[in-house]
Design a protein that fits this description.
Largest sheet: 2 strands, parallel
Order of helices and strands: EHEH
Oligomer: single chain
Number of strands: 2
Strand order of the largest sheet: 1-2
Strand content: 5-15%
Radius of gyration: 14 Å
């Protein structure tokens, strides 16, 4: 998977409600994410989205521009 490829992004503008129901499919942590932060956010994400994929980028991913996918 190309790291810097165009993302499929959706934006929503809503009136009358501060929340929009979304289904999160993947959570990707950058190379400088503190382990405590990624552990906490992973636990929260998996509680609310049990099937979510969680990944951690490595320095090599940045250098090559390719994402070696692995789950946390």
């Amino acid at each position: 998977m190309k790291l810097w490829s165009h993302e499929r992004e959706h934006r929503v503008f809503a009136q009358g409600s501060p929340f929009v129901a979304v289904k999160v499919k993947e959570l990707v942590f950058g190379i400088n994410t503190e382990p405590r932060q990624s552990e906490l956010l992973t636990a929260i994400a998996k509680k609310f989205c049990p099937g979510i994929a969680v990944r951690q980028l490595a320095r090599a991913d940045i250098e090559t521009g390719e994402l070696d996918e692995y789950e946390i």
